[in-house]
């Protein structure tokens, strides 16, 4: 099966004409023979809009399948924590899995979260207060602390990996936040970014991935252009598209469709 990976599409921030772009994406994916399109979060800043986009892509691509998880931006509006955990849409893969027909592969989705451990080079800092003052995540409701939320993520992922192991499935794990320290940018002169590292993800997820020898991990959140990287038994893919606007340009191309094609990663899984 052919699986296409992407994340951080940010349709709204990038002012994308959905009526034009979504059929263009679908046409390109069909031309490439893609059977499954995986979007690792941050479609828009509104969960209902992100869901509607995934559902529209599913209609355009059928019988191929579309699955997405929520990134932090998708969580800002129109959804509660409880809804994020249980939303029933088929295209939404958080804490669920999908077995690729005719293969030994299972795709496991989990939105993920963070626990401040990527900022352990800083001491005595109130990361929660900093987040509430400066970060886009501040309006996101949750009934627990960030480290406690990450604990729940780890429990969910572990349970899914144990089940996949028992079913003798090879796993592609899709999550939004960073799972390894190698992707984190530490600096001596950018205090803002060193604080933001607290909200990038958790090295504990990377350790869990290593413990279970997960073959493939797809994640997003970091708006940088990484090549696939191999750590222990795992290949990591970060296929973020990112921002192109008056303040920030993270693209190599000037138009959205060209950047999307360039960032898209297609895998053949047997």
TrEMBL record:
Signal peptide: none
InterPro entries attached to this UniProt entry: Calcineurin-like_PHP (IPR004843), Metallo-depent_PP-like (IPR029052), Metallophosphoesterase_sf (IPR051158), Phosphoesterase_putative (IPR022302)
Domain Calcineurin-like phosphoesterase: 1-224
Lineage: superkingdom: Bacteria
NCBIfam families cross-referenced by the UniProt entry: acc_ester (TIGR03729)
PANTHER family named among the record's database cross-references: PHOSPHOESTERASE (PTHR31302:SF22), TRANSMEMBRANE PROTEIN WITH METALLOPHOSPHOESTERASE DOMAIN-RELATED (PTHR31302)
Protein name as catalogued: Phosphoesterase
Organism field: Levilactobacillus spicheri
């Amino acid at each position: 099966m052919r699986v296409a990976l992407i994340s951080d599409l940010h349709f709204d921030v990038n002012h994308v004409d959905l009526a034009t772009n979504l059929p263009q994406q679908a046409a390109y994916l069909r031309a490439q023979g893609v059977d499954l399109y995986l979007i690792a979060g941050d479609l828009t800043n509104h969960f209902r809009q992100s869901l509607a986009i995934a559902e529209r892509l599913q209609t355009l691509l059928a019988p191929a399948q579309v699955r997405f998880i929520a990134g932090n931006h998708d969580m800002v509006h129109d959804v509660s924590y409880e809804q994020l955990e249980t939303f029933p849409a088929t295209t939404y893969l958080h804490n669920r899995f999908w077995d690729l027909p005719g293969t030994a592969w299972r795709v496991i989705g989990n939105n993920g979260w963070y626990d401040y451990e990527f900022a352990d080079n800083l001491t005595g800092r109130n990361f929660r207060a900093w987040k509430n003052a400066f970060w886009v995540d501040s309006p996101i409701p949750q009934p627990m602390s960030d480290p406690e939320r990450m604990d729940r993520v780890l429990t969910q992922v572990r349970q899914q990996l144990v089940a996949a192991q028992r079913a003798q499935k090879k796993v592609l794990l899709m999550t939004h936040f960073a799972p390894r320290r190698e992707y984190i940018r530490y600096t001596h002169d950018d205090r803002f970014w060193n604080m933001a590292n607290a909200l990038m993800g958790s090295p504990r997820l990377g350790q869990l991935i290593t413990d279970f020898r997960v073959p493939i991990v797809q994640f997003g959140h970091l708006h940088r252009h990484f090549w696939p990287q191999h750590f222990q038994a795992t290949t990591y893919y970060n296929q973020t598209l990112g921002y192109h606007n008056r303040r920030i340009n993270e693209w190599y191309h000037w138009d959205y469709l060209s950047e999307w094609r360039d960032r898209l990663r297609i895998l053949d899984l047997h």
